[in-house]
Every structure is written in structure tokens, then in C-alpha cells.
Fold:
Amino acid sequence: MPSIPPPPPKTRTVQPPVPAQVRPPPARPELPPELPIAEISASELSEVSDTSNPSISMSSVSSISDEDPPTPMLPPPVVAAAMPKAGPRASVPPAAAAAKGASVPPRPQKPIERVEVKIRRVGNVKVPLPDYQSALAAGMDLAAAIEGPLSIAPLARVLVPTGIAIALPPGFEAQVRPRSGLAWSRGLTVLNSPGTIDADYRGEIKVLLVNLGTDDALITQGERIAQLVVARHARVELELVEALDDTERGSGGYGSTGA
Structure:
């Protein structure tokens, strides 16, 4: 048998890789230039929608084609309401300020009436003149113008000189009142409290002391034994009548308003 030649070997042709085709990015569409924003007041906006083009109203603005962009319409400008001016700051009561720990300013004081009274010394013993012991004290202290110590027995009374005489202006009186310190510590008080010094009296002022304590009370020269208060008074003109006007109280006296 004739021999069959072997088939020729298959050759494989290798093609170089084809580079992938890169597509360029699509061109970006050009945007229309920005339109200026017109400031339209509320009155102008109503005129545009009502009179200038009756076929266009606020409800038909959304149906306009995108191909013909309309001029943007803005709402009317908002006008800020004027804020009310703050009024004066309310004052804080002193009690509330003290509770919060704040300093409380002193209250303004009204000027106190000044009265000129003439005074002179009398007798042989000189003692300090009457004087106020604090800025707002009502009474001036009176000193005992005595030669030496004076002892007052329990329930005894004695007339103590003060070594001064005064001349009050008309319409004023001077009242002799006890000192609370002597009344508390030794039971000494003014028996005719308050003793009245009239404006036409020119003699020496004397203090009627009484010892209401249980022990002897000793006072010394220059010791403050009473206080003198000067006050205004009225001058009464009496009118004699047959009857007085009626009141709800009437003639009710001691104990009429309760014990």
C-alpha cells in the first residue's frame, strides 16, 4: 500500500492586540448666561400678573415652555417689623434685691426741718449742752447739773437741775421725756412724762425723776438723765356751742372699744 504522508503541522498566527477605542467625553452643553435678578415689589408684581399681560397669571407661570425661559419672579421683599424700643429698666424692690445678694442703694432722705432755739447757761455747775446722739435722733440728751452724786431711794422722786434755759419760737414746745436706758437698768423715769416747756418760759429746765425700781439709784454730775424733743403745736380757738355733732362712737370712753 502506498504510504500516506503525514499532514503538515498547523501554524497559529498570533495577532497583536487591538487597542480599545476610547470614546471622547460628550461635549458639555453651554448654559445660558445668568439672568439678572430683578427686585420687584409687591405692588409691581401684582401689576405684572393683572394688567401688563392678562393671559399670564401666577398659576400659569409653571406651564411656560423650557425653550423660552421666563424671567424669574421673586416674592415681594420681606420688611422686618421694627422692634419696639426697650423701656426704662424696672426697679427692683429692696427686699428682692437683698434676697438676690445685690447691694441696696440707700433711700433718699427728705430734709429735716431746722429750728433755731436760743439757749443760755444758768447756775454754778456747767455741764454739756443738750446734743443729739445720732444723725436722725428726735431728742437731745439733758445732763444733770448737780454738785455731786445723788442717790434716789425706791419710789422716791427728786427735781434735778440741768443748768440751761431756752427760748423757743412761737408755735413750738419742748417735751422732757425719759431715757430708755435708765428706765431699764435702774428703774428711773420722768414722773410727769412728758414734761412741757412752753415757748414763753425762760427759767431753768428741771427734770422730775422717780425711782420705780427696788434698789437705790445713783446719778452723777453730767450724767444724761432725760431727753428734750422740740415739736410744733397748734394754737386753739375755742367756740362755745350748745351741742356737738354726732359720731358712731359717741360718748364711749374707757374700755368702750374692748379690754
